Amino acid sequence: MDNFARGRATRAHPTPNPPQSAPYRGSVYRFLLTPRWWGINVFVLLAIPFCIFMGSWQLSRFEARVQAHHSADEQVETAKKEAARPLADLLPVDQATSGKRAAVSGRYGKQLLVPDRQLGDKNGFYVLTLLRTDSGQALPVVRGWLPGKADAAKAPAAPTGEVTVTGALQASEAPGDNGVGAQSGLPSGQTAAISAATLVNLVPYKVYDAWITLDKADSGMTAVPATVPDNSGLDLKAFQNLGYTGEWFVFAGFVVFMWFRLLRREVEFARDAALGIVPEEEPVGVRA
Fold it and tell me: Which domain holds residue 109?
């Protein structure tokens, strides 16, 4: 009887081992609770929103410049239909007053030429005459444009006596604005830029920090159209904003990519360690 019982005991089926998938899976991802991965996860959770915020901000800057460009073009066209206002009401020149029509009275004084100015696809020069006002200051007035090389003999003389002129108000130029060059050593009677800082050295009286281009050019010359205000066009700064937008969004995507890459490496190493392929005492993340 005892032998029979022992035989049955020896023939009994062994109890199957419990499935190891749940403990195994938990051990693989246990590294996510380590201080190192807490730091990585916090960094990722902060970096992604920051990159998206900065990219969105740069995009809004680009869109604002595009809108300003359209508004400036509309402002120039609208100003042509508005009544001319006294010069004093429009100074100092800013983005709100640039392009507005101004009416000024005075007597023409010294005349200068502004070489290397394009109109359409042709190169030529401006005829610039200083209008001396009752205030004692002179206002630079672009009376028109002529094709070819700057030549004083081609420029018609300014009207004599008291005159009242109307034209689009413009801000003083600086090198780089609307094709303005930083020329030096020009012949007498010529200036590279229409600005008070330059003209004050060429005339014996004060000059307004502004200028106007006549609605109708004098003596058969071509009228010079008004330009949009500075920093209101699709210039290099606008496209820099667009480039920065792309960079910040790429950074956000790169952070996500690197997080998944690190996670995959850690999972593979932890799985190998659980299977005994690598020593468990080896620090996680040491292997390449």
Answer: 99-214
Is residue 65 within 8 A of residue 265, CB to CB? The reply is no
Q: Partners of 236 in the beta sheet?
A: none
Nearest by Cα to 58 from 238, 232, 235, 250: 238
What separation, in Å, do the N-terminal and C-terminal C-alpha atoms of the chain show?
64
Residue 138: Cβ within 10 Å count: 25
pLDDT tens, residue by residue, 157-170: 999 999 999 999 99
Nearest Cα neighbor of 241 from 112, 70, 92, 62 is: 62
Is this model's pTM higher than 0.70 or not?
A: no
Q: What total of structural domains would you count in the chain?
A: 2
Name the phi and psi angles at 118, rounded to 5: -90, 145
Same domain, 33 and 115: no
CB 262 within 8 A of CB 287: no
pLDDT in tens, 37-60: 899 999 999 999 999 999 999 999
